[in-house]
Amino acid sequence: METSVSNYEKNCQAWQERFRAMDQGRLLEIIPGLRREGGDLTLYHFGEKFAVDSATGAIRSLESDGPVSATVRLNIYTLFGYASPLAHFQDDWVPFQQLRNTGVFQTAFQNGILTPLVATFTGRTAELRQALEAMGGQKLPCSDVGYQVEAFACIPLRVLFWEGDDEFPAQANLLFDRSATDFIHSESIVSIAMAGLYRLAELAGLPLDRRAFPMP
Question: Which tens digits make up the pLDDT trace of 21-76?
Fold first, then answer.
């Protein structure tokens, strides 16, 4: 019987084919944090190390035996496909909707990323702090829980969380360096945030709020 393949998997397969034709030397030059180790290219995504087989383009985790989600694989492939040789860190931190060409995704980002982030960690700031530190985050002197983490070495982001009180509900935001959309397609920023949200819940040992985007 023929097994159906999801559109996400088909997209991954198409990108894997594209990768085989890419100039890997150029990728190593323009993408900070990308390394060659034996027959692989390696990089970290939210603190987890991944290897991309230089010959086949297959992606595997170097820290887990389980399958790598299509979302994470697409994040890696689209980084390779869209990184500009002129891209560079600008130290200009902005919310998602102020990144180039992301306005159309603003409502989805709020509903599928920020709202479930708040719901998952309200009353659980200790778990959020622990997860961010396990991810390699650097503490920031702002918000109740504020850390800078690396989605990729070239795409850092800041996670800011304010616990609620009698007057105001809990709130959260993610800030990106303005250069993020020079390294990757604007729509992929949503997928990056999705992968980060799932990673935080996993490291915290908490069930993710059901309103989060499903991650294939």
Answer: 999 999 999 999 999 999 999 999 999 999 999 999 999 999 999 999 999 999 99
CA pair distance 196, 113, nearest whole angstrom = 10
Distance CA(76)–CA(118), nearest Å, equals: 26
1 confidence band (pLDDT: 50, 70, 90): very low
Beta-carbon contacts of 211 under 8 Å, excluding residues fewer than 6 positions away, are: 111, 112, 115, 116, 119
- 0.70 exceeded by the pTM? yes
Other Cβ atoms closer than 10 A to 100: 12
What phi, psi does 210 have (nearest 5°)?
A: -65, -15
Sheet containing 93-95: give its strands across.
Answer: 93-95, 171-177, 155-162, 145-152, 138-139
Instruction: List the domains of the chain with CATH numbers.
Output: 7-82 (no CATH), 93-204 (3.30.310)
